[in-house]
Protein 1
Amino acid sequence: MIALLRMEIGKLLRLASLRFSLVLLVVFPLLWAYAPGVFEVYGFYLVSGFQVPALGLLSGMEFLLPLLVAITSAELLGIEMAFGTLPTILLRPVSRSRWLLAKLLVAALYPFVVLLFLLLVSLAAGAWFGFGPFVGGTGLGEAGILGQGVMEPAAAWTEIVRAYAVAAISLVPISLLAVLFSVVFMSAAGGALATLGTLIVMKLLVVFPLVEPYLLTSQLSAYVAPVAGLGWVVLLIAVYCTAFAVAAVLLFERKDF
Amino acid sequence: MTSRAIETERLTKAYGARPIVRDLTFHVDPGEVYALVGPNGAGKTTVIRLVSGLAFPTSGSVRLLGADPHQRPEVRRRLGAVVEAPAAFYPYLTGRQNLELHARLVGGVRETRIGEVLEMMELGPSADRRVGVYSLGMRQRLGVAGALLAEPEVLILDEPASGMDPLSLHLVHRVLKVAAEGGTAVLLSTHHLDEVVAYCSRVAILEEGALIDEVDLRDRRARYRASVSDVHAARVLLDTQPFVTQASIRGAEVVFQLTGPDELPRVAPVLTKARIDLLGLARDTFDLRAYYQERLGDRRRPEEPPGPEQLTGSPATERAEAAPTETERAETERAETDQAETERAETEQAETEQALPRGER
């Protein structure tokens, strides 16, 4: 399994969509950190390097980050179809479920890679503002970006790391859903588009208050304000992840190639 | 008892109501080269995918080295296969890196093996170039190299010579022949009928997913024809020899089958000793192409409107309903050839007699 994982990570690093995502994720925080109209639009000035990571999440989790995660995760399997390597690999003495499980694990890991990268770039972009104590908040805690008095660096680090970890966790089911759809449609584009379509439909379902706490899309803002507590978020995401992974494996096991 | 390398039993694959493979039963033994031939859309690729475990049968069964390849994927450790044409590899890796990746998936591949198979397929000089720049033929050769990587007991190849130049094609067939001689069971689909005759053990002719004929080429390969001074005496003489399994007369020649090709040098001395002049000796080459065309032609011949005799179970109806067996066909073929040869000989004799002065007739 370790060998399979290493292979899949190697393939992930070579994906065109990953490279494209990384370029976007470099540009994105830089634009935010030095955008001239932040005050006019949001009513605040950036005063600390700890505030730049919040901007990345606040604007990215709405659409860009789920999009990037869905495209790359769908491409993990789609690339095998594009190169025609899927049958060749499946002819080797590796069970289909183990092979797909390796892909699913890499897909589950991918949101953490994306958000770690975004965090590092955001911190680098915010270095100009410094990382000392500052008046205000990180934008990722209860006090928002305006804060409540002076914020110490240790408290700021805690808020940022917690928020990025929760954000990454809430993106994992989207990643696995993209793999599931790429198994269904046997194409990267089909997988990514079906995932985005599902997310859009889920967002529209917020008009049903009873359903809202269970929606995948409702958990995308859990890094700052969980709908029903962090424990609920983790449990629900675990259920989604298990369902998507099991469905993908079962479908893949019975596919004709 | 030798266990079968590949065995299918009433193998059927259908997509919806449309059958792609129908009731296919065949086997391949170790050391055999079994070729699937047939027109495009006959179901050859589907058979290859079913046997190699890439597709699931709708009904019937597949056994690969005695095991179900779906239930026991580890049996594929002993399988080498190329099911894509051209063989598919990661274009951003070199040929060697691709094989290294496959070696890791297989496990237990000797360190020197990658170099060996690359040399075997004459890819040594280009082994460290990215596969993305390989030609079609080079990719296909790399595919065969990949299939040979784990020194498999079974080789399954779908159109292994697709897109190859004549030299590469010859190389691939030579490698497959050597593998079979070493005990590997080879199943391949191909359109190269001439190459098939040269080294395949048996050929299955498929049409519309069904096996319409199976020809054993091993028997044909040890068959010879000889021009002799006395065909009748030669036939009787050869028929009694322990190294001859069958002898018959075809026109002015005697056609015989040896127990093995190595026995050929024993023929001339036997005839000479019996004072029969041997005027010519040649292999009785089996024309698979003609046979194949004829078999498919038989099936594609439009049916005549039913006449009164067909409705009452005439021989014509029986012929349409039951395709003749290979033996029946061969006998018919031989009888037709014999008749033609006899007529030709009679005509020649008559012409010769007319040409001769009356006193010499």
Note: Chain A has a mean pLDDT of 89.
Protein 2
Amino acid sequence: MKKINIDNLDYKKLGLCCGIELHQQLNTHKLFCNCKSKLINEATKPDKVISRRLRAVSSEAGELDSTAKEEQKKNKLFVYNFYKSCNCLVETDSQPPFPINNEALKIAGMITKLTNSVFVDRSYVMRKQVIDGSNVSGFQRTALISTNGSLDFDFGKVRVDKILLEEDAARAIERTDDKVIYSLDRLGIPLIELVVWHDIHTPEDTKAVALKVGQIFRSTGKTKRGLGSIRQDINISIKDGSRVEIKGAQNLDLIPEIVKREIVRQLNLLEIKEELQKRDIKRINLETKKISCLFSKTESKVIKNSFNLKKEIFILKLENFKGLLGYEIQPDRRLGTEIASVLKATTTLKGIFHLDELPNYGITENDLTNIKKEINLKENDSFIIVMCFSDEIEDVKRIIEKRLNQLLVGIPKETRMATIEGSTEYQRPLSGSARMYPETDLSAIEFDSKYLEDINNSLPLTIKEREKLYLEKFKLNSQLVDKMKLSNFAPIFENIVSNSNISPTTVCVFLLEDLTKAQRENLIDLDDVVESDFINFFLDQDFNKIPKQKLLECFVYSFNNNVKINKALLDLGFLEQAADVSEIVDFVIEDNKEKILELKERAVGLLMGRVMSETKGLVDGKIISKMVSEKLKFFLKNSNV
Amino acid sequence: MCALLKEDIGKLITIINNKENKEIIFKGYLVDIKENFYKIKLLDNGYNVDVLVTGSSKIVIEDQKITLGKPKSKPLNYNKNLPNIVYIGTGGTIGTHVDYNTGGVFMCRTPEEIISTTPELEDIVNIKETKSPFIKGSEDLGYKDWQEISKIVYNSIIQKEIDGVIITHGTDILSWTGSAISFMVDNINKPVLLVGAQKSPDRASFDGSMNLICAAHFIKEKIPGVYTVMHGSINDDFCYVIKAVKSKKLHTSRRDSFRAINDTPIAKVYQNGTIEYLVNKNEIVVSKLPTLNNFFSDKVAIIKAYPNSDPRIIDWYLDNDYKGLIIEGTALGHAPILKTDNGYEKKSWLPYLKKAIENKVIVIMCSQSIFGRVNGKVYANLRYLEEIGVEFLDQHDMLVEVAYLKLANALSRFKTKKEIINFMKTNVVGEISNKEIPNSFDKSLE
């Protein structure tokens, strides 16, 4: 069998085609209710816990979708953590959806324009069946907004197939064999899905396209930031292979590696196919046997644990299969790993053992000899060992047999999950279009002239236009320009600077650096801050009264307490009156010298009263109190008493 | 362009339009035609879009055609070891099907189609017979439907081999129908269970299946009476079995919108068949044989008394020969009295009610407060009403709709006012409780 070199792949010859689906969360309220789009720390105690089960239903065309069937088989309990700060009855599937969020619809329109896409004439919100529990209703709401877009790159034109507006799913926070716990916080957050056609032909170009689309999303200034707010799924196919969808590529830098490793996986599976032909294997049939008795005295922890769970040990014999299960198909992943990942996704099994990796895991050379004898293993045969409940073994056998027989045909079309290293694991079969039907509780989406005009008026500047504006007009230094031109805050920044005479650098540093710091130190929850909060703050008539180094503190206070700058300054003691207070305290002390010398520290009360009446309640008592006691101390010390 | 017709719906078509200097191609099944918009279910991804068709559009029609939106139906198995039921399907959300033409939900399911959503049923009960007297949403039901359904219930429960009846029904007036049956069939000796759904069966989150399963489990208990069996909490865990005459839909859309009013549910039924009684089940007995009394006078109306309301409406009912009025008064049973030094203000209800009663209309007071009893004594204004003959029925606690159905039945069943009032005051099927404990109201606050 030929060794595939990952660093020496000829993409043109392989006929590599990559497409990308990008999912971007929007920074608006939820798509079908008025709840805030914010995530809650998993450790936070939910306000309510709701448990549900889903049922398989037939689709419009009559047949059950294959994904739906697969999930139904597991018949899991779904537990939902409900948080009143970001959930309502809509997320619990106890109330019909509200009309679609207009702001989200507008952002989808902006992205349509920015990718040269064409609006559909009229759209309908659809229900896409999802029965893994991540949607309480059993479906995800989604609408097709536009099609036929394109983006230009150095390497050529890439088609933007379609742009969708949909609701994000609930977040799985714990999975066990019979239940999944979801946090409802994420459910309903508006999500733009942009589908790039498989016009990309190298791993590096795939990354470049993802990067550019990400920039377009952010240029609207309306996208969420942070981990998980953008997700990329990559479609990969090669000439002799199949189309595989890879989910969970969060890190852009990993994209080329994922593409390369998938090519390698497919090539290696094709190698195995060829090898099977050489060995003249036409169909793979497994022989199953219970061999628990061979392990009654085992030292293997894994096997002991299985016995404790009342599981049995089964062996599945594979004739003429020697060496193939241990064949490496991706760095550090073997054919055996591949079969284990299918079982993990579809049964309660956590993994398998196979001949090519034994002795190991507490299975000794002696055990191996016994096993071989027990099943009459011939030189070229191989086997798989599984630990499962007796009533599960038929399913397990069927799944392994199906997967192995697919090797004889080619690469299965499927959805896979990216690992941290860039390899992939089986997740589920590709979902077909059969699982889509109209949302009955909403009316059609119209893209009327008023809507289109509104979008044309709110399109963001391009990166190039921003560079020019920031450098030449706003006179930002190039470092800040580079950061701000790609920032989510750019439209807000432009708005503030254009509508005030505040120094652009001040605004820029505040938005890019100060706020991040405040978020990091948990002083503020940026999810709660909306555009108008910034605008109102910077355009407040009292903005100039803020001491420069106190900008962040003042913003945080005024936002968290929902007060205007004037009040914030007063409460925080930053007002210019502070200087006056100091003078007043000095005056009052001077005026009451004798009394103070008599009362000593006890003079505080007297002084407080006098100063308070002099400042007529304009200054916070705490500030006065602090200043009075300091100055009194100083006075007493200097008076040598 | 070739214009397509309604007959073309379901055909696979391709529409090519020129828009923003691009050739835009949509291929899919034609789902609907509305003026110049062709609604298409896109072939490659299943999305529905409307495509505007103009003179310059190119349309290609292919031979392939699909039939849209036909629910499945499952033949019923018979197992002689299980309790026998008569299943009555009447419409409602539980019997809806998504109409893929309009995206709307409408009622088209036969009993067999509804049962097919919940195949577990045939392991719990044996569906001996299915009936579908009508397929309607709650809002379209009328007294003739109640008379018909009561007759089917009566004919079912008098059969020896039948252990109970399950009725699927729209939830809005689920308990109305249950109450109507309660008064139209005397001495109901078997369980008659009303089941609905708040979420339609096209969803994986369909709640009707669990309600049906729980109802089926309750049949074997042989508890006589008419009950609603619906979700007991926001979770998919158990259903409450509530006397229909004490059951009310208190929420527009939640699964657990049915609550017991001034009463305790009979039992909790879990999906696995576990039953927890919340009352002493031995007290629920019926010793006589059922009789059908499906009388109904449609000359009864419910009128709401509220601030600024115009009492002249009462005259309209009087002019139109109404024989009974249920007044939905505030709290203990007030209607605007508006007494002045020398009579009443224009909008006082008192003179109008007095006139109606003098014309032999029976006027019964109920409360808008939902929970609690009415009373004709506590305030002077209440006494004025009682003095002119407004009936407070010895401080009853009947729900407005229950009093309405009971009075409509009584007006046709009895001749004299005395008999009618006597019937109204009698606790016939548990519609009037003899005492109220804190729990029923406290639970509603949880």
Note: Chain A touches chain B through 51 residues (CB under 8 Å).
